[in-house]
Design a protein that fits this description.
six-stranded mixed sheet; 267 residues; Purple Acid Phosphatase, chain A, domain 2; five-stranded mixed sheet
Amino acid sequence: MLDALRNLFRSKTQGRLPAVPEGMRYYVIGDIHGRLDLYDALLAAIEEDDAQRGQHQTEVILLGDLVDRGPESAGVIARTREWQEKRTVRVLAGNHEEMFLEAFEKPDVLRHFLKHGGRETIMSYGISKKQFNAMTLDELFAMLPQIVPQSERDYIADFEEMIIAGDYLFVHAGIDPAVPIEAQKRGDMLWIRDRFLSHEGPLEKVVVHGHTIFDRVMDCGNRIGIDTGAFRSGVLTALVLEADQKRILQACDNEGQIEIFHGDRGR
């Protein structure tokens, strides 16, 4: 699997390279989806990398979809909150966070959530497989507010929708290419695919996004997709941006051993 995850940035940008503000360093992490093991390894690698480089103002940006599918969504949320106490870590809302919060509203929405990785998320909050399987949908819906406290839901509800830094825009899924940045709809920023992915022309900013899984970092010049499918591929990617330079850090699960990859090319 890891041998197939080779990446060569394929930027089509002409002339001046896109850049983040001077004196800033950004670590942008793709969709974690409950893979706390990979997240912990990448977090440690980021801290080490940042300490070894020159003095900069550093920000970490998570592109959303911290939850669902993987086994430790609650742990990923907890680790993020801990990290935010030590440095600037900004979190974008993903479509899976939206589904998670909406699952508290109606049983039918909960049913949809469970089909898209929500089962693993709920179990990560301390419900055993036996307990989960014994509950009806209505019973689970009634118990859900007790399983996930209001403070946790309020924290997730406060995730940002987009972040701009110099020539870059960070968002979970993408943007509508026909609409100015300031007029983008939340639904598109969390869910869009084809209209955004198929757009080959220039955009107002270089859009760094997750949401759509690629087997390598996908740099198309006008956008950079960094969701390498951590929950199924075992590869969690961070894009590092500094001035007009970009590079990659990845935590890779190689048959149970997590390795860190550094460089301009992913694995």
